[in-house]
Structures are given as structure tokens and as C-alpha cells.
Amino acid sequence: MKSLSILVLLGTLSAIIIGAFFAITPARAQDSAPAVAAASQEQAAVVAPVTGSQEVAAPAVEAVAPAAAEAAAVEPGVALAQTFTVSLQKDTSSPVVEAAPAAAELAALEAAPAAQAEPAPAVAAFSSFVGSVTNGNSAQVTGIYVDGVMAYGVVGQGGNAAFVSEQPNVVTQFGLASQYGSQGFLAHNYLAGGAFATIGIGQTITLVYGDGSTRDFQVTGTQSYQALSPDSTQSNFVDLNSGEQISASTLFHKVYNSKNSLVLQTCIEQDGISTWGRLFITAVPLS
């Protein structure tokens, strides 16, 4: 009888121990799973796609890199054609040429009574313009000036080779041109580019830098081309002087592959088409 009681007691203890084991084990497995999953997710979050870099800052770098790579891979002819083939409608409520405000502003400054005999009105107008575009950056072109014609601010393209500013009295620096040794500046003909056609050979174009320094260029020539397919990035162009037909790539190299030159580019409007042709004003540095 006593032996039977002992056996029952042992059996009960065994059952409790076995039950406790199976009751605890799943709980431990369940608790450990999220930790593994969390670790995997954390690792995936810090491992940058493609490169496999485990630096947390890598995603931010990756977000910028494609834009830079894309800009570097731009085919010059396509970039040239894209600058003015974006489907944009002119604002018919505004004057066709927006160059007048800048010229009027200069005229007003020149006509204003001077408190002192010096500086001369034209010098005062130019000095005022330089001061308005100064930002302290000596490496950045911030303004472009032609006496009596225009005094415009300059913006960059931000890595988009087809970008042209939609702001009046603002010219866009063509980033791709600098890779070929020249400095290019773009503007729509119904905005700041309307002034380009009024610039003549022999006139001086002054670039203003962010630190207030300036550099002068003298206009040496103009080139006009018709775009055979105005809204296509694959358009060929016809030289309106010689009648020669050339590709967009050939035109780009002809205009921009010239060391130290300055080029102003805008569209020629004809037959109601604002992008019918292209006008290039070329200038060289004054010593």
C-alpha cells in the first residue's frame, strides 16, 4: 500500500514536470521569434540596396547618386533639344517680351537725381545690380548684365539638364556647357530671353559672381537655326544662314565646345510656334 502511494506520488510529480516543460517551451520560442525578426528588419534597414553598405547615412547618399549619374550620362544633343521642347503654354496675359522691366529699371536708376556728382548714373545702376545679386560665393555666377539691355539674376539647373527657369528676369546657367569649356545661359524667349535678340556684335556682357567680382565678354557673333521638329528631342536643325542641316549633337558641339566662350541661348518664335528655332549669342572674354 505504501509502495502504491509512492508510485502515485512519483507519477504525479512526473506529470507536473513534463507539463511544465511543454507549457514553457512554446512561450520561449514565441518570445524569441520577434527578436530575430526585429534583428533582421534592423539589418535590412541599414543595408543600402545595391552597394550593401551598412552605414545609416547610405540611403541618403543613394538618393542623390542617381541624379548625379543621370546628369553625367546626358547626351549633349538631347540636352540641347530638351531645354526648349517642354510643353509649355505662354501666358497670354503677359507681354511677349519681358526684357523691358530690367531695361526700364536701369533707365529709372539712371534718370534719378544724383545726390552727388559721382558716381555716374550708369555706374550707380550697375553697382546697385551687383549688390542685389551678391551672396558671397565667388565660384557661382549670380547675375548677367548688358548695359541698357538687361540686368538679370542667374540660377543653376540643379542637376536637371533640361531645366529652364520660368521666372521673369532670371536666366538659367546651362550646366552641361561647362563640361565642354564654355559657359551657357538659357532663357525662354517670352521671358528673359526676349532681350537676347537685341544684343549686337561688339556689345559687352558682364557676368557677376557671388562675391561681387565681375568678368566681361564681348559679343562676336550670332547664330540662328530652325528646329525641323520643334517638340522633339531628336530634331535636326537648319542653319538659317547657310541652309546646312545638322543634328542636335553636332549643333551642341558647334556652339558649346569652345573653350572660354560665353553663349546665350533662347528660342526663335515663328508661325505661332514659340520653339520654332534657336538663337545663340556668342562672346569671348575681354582681356
Overview of the molecule:
The protein contains six helices and ten strands, in the order H-H-H-H-H-E-E-E-E-E-E-E-E-H-E-E. With 287 residues, it is α+β, with helices and mostly antiparallel strands. The protein has two domains: 2-68; 76-285, Sortase, Chain: A, CATH 2.40.260. Strands 1-2-3-4-9-10-6-5 form an eight-stranded mixed barrel. Mean pLDDT is 72; it is low at 15-72 and 87-119.
Spatial strand sequence of the major β-sheet: 1-2-3-4-9-10-6-5
Characterize the main sheet: 8 strands, mixed, barrel
> What share of residues are in beta strands?
15-25%
The H/E string reads HHHHHEEEEEEEEHEE
Whole-angstrom Rg? 34 Å
Helix/sheet category:
alpha+beta
How many DSSP helices? Answer: 6
CATH fold descriptor of the largest domain? Sortase, Chain: A
CATH class category label of the largest domain: Mainly Beta
Gross geometry = globular
Q: Give start-end ranges of low-pLDDT stretches.
A: 15-72, 87-119
Beginning-to-end CA distance, first to last residue: 123 Å
Q: Using the 3D structure, state the CATH architecture of the largest domain.
A: Beta Barrel
Mean pLDDT: 72
The number of distinct structural domains comes to: 2
How many E-type strands? 10
